[in-house]
Specification:
Radius of gyration: 18 Å
Number of strands: 11
Distance between the termini: 26 Å
CATH architecture: Alpha-Beta Barrel
Oligomer: single chain
CATH class: Alpha Beta
Largest sheet: 9 strands, mixed
Number of domains: 1
Structural class: alpha/beta
Length: about 300
């Protein structure tokens, strides 16, 4: 198994819904195997947080055995309380100023060619953590110049200077998830705004036309099919290049209820529609998450650019 990617990212969804039996196509691999155990030990020894664990991502067995993982910088406590997310909400502790170097060291240790970096929301920080993102991007590029960097960022409360700090650090891909349709946004993402998300993505592309922009949504929260089409059209209008679409899975009884499961055929139809709208790449499926198989997405984009 080639050592080609490490995802330092937020996993957005959790594995177990409590309302109804999960369909067969949502069966995930049980975490086990030598690569899984090695990666777990690496993260613990380097004091790195993995969102795979914090957000109960259903792909942890598959991804870790492929030597990919999702990490969070800036701690594991989030200042926001999104209705779909299993990550702990509260007052974050003081962050570790040495973490960017440890992230870069982990990337070098694994010999990776692509890495995804994200964080919890840190609204209490004046810049929302953007400077920390920039430091991490630059640390990875210095330590492993051949490694491309993808960032999955919060919205920084719409602050343009914070976004500029991240873009100027030179990530190859910038991702910010839309998560759901406009009508459900206030219920699903209590402290976020649909319009602010679209504006951030449009601004990021305008700041660097060569940088790939990316966003993701989840389905099963009660959205209508035509509303999914509207989100995709809005994202293309913001010049987003890559789209991910996955099934919402309820973390606990305290989280938003699951309204229904989408079938693999429905996900295939969404992918076909997205490609027709002009996305360079669409990853659409029941277990798809914002950073799922991100290394393969990068390979696809590189081939397209040749």
């Amino acid at each position: 198994m080639p050592r080609d990617v490490l995802h330092l990212s937020t996993g957005d969804l959790a594995p177990t819904d409590l309302r109804e039996k999960r369909p067969e196509w949502l069966r995930a691999k049980f975490p086990s195997g030598p690569n899984y155990r090695e990666l777990k030990q690496l993260m613990r020894s380097n004091n790195l947080n993995t969102v795979c664990e914090e957000a109960h991502c259903p792909n942890i067995g598959d991804c870790w055995e492929r030597r990919t993982a999702t990490f969070m910088i800036l701690g594991s406590v989030c200042t926001r309380s999104c209705g779909f997310c299993a990550i702990e909400t509260g007052k974050p502790p003081v962050y570790d100023v040495l973490e960017p170097g440890r992230v870069a060291a982990a990337v070098a240790h694994l010999g990776l060619r692509h890495v995804v970096v994200t964080s919890v929301a840190r609204d209490e920080l004046p810049d929302g953590g953007s400077t920390f993102f920039a430091r991490t991007i630059r640390a990875i590029h210095r330590r492993v110049p051949e490694c491309s960097v993808e960032v999955l960022i919060p919205d920084f409360k719409g602050d343009e200077a914070s976004l500029r700090a991240v873009v100027d650090a030179g990530p190859e891909i910038l991702n910010h998830n839309t998560e759901t349709v406009s009508r459900l946004h206030r219920r699903v993402r209590v402290q976020a705004k649909y319009e602010r998300t679209l504006e951030l993505l449009a601004r990021a592309k305008a700041m660097n036309l060569r940088m790939v922009t990316k966003s993701g949504i989840m389905v099963g929260l009660g959205e209508r099919r035509e509303e999914i089409s509207t989100v995709m059209a809005d994202l293309r209008a913001a010049r987003v290049d890559v789209l991910t679409v996955g099934q919402y899975l309820r973390p606990s009884r305290e989280h938003l209820p699951l309204e229904r499961y989408y079938t693999p055929d429905e996900f295939a139809q969404i992918k076909e529609e997205g490609l027709a709208l002009g996305f360079s790449h669409v990853e659409s499926g029941p277990l798809v998450r914002s950073s799922y198989h991100a290394d393969e997405q990068v390979q696809h984009l590189n081939k397209e650019a040749v």
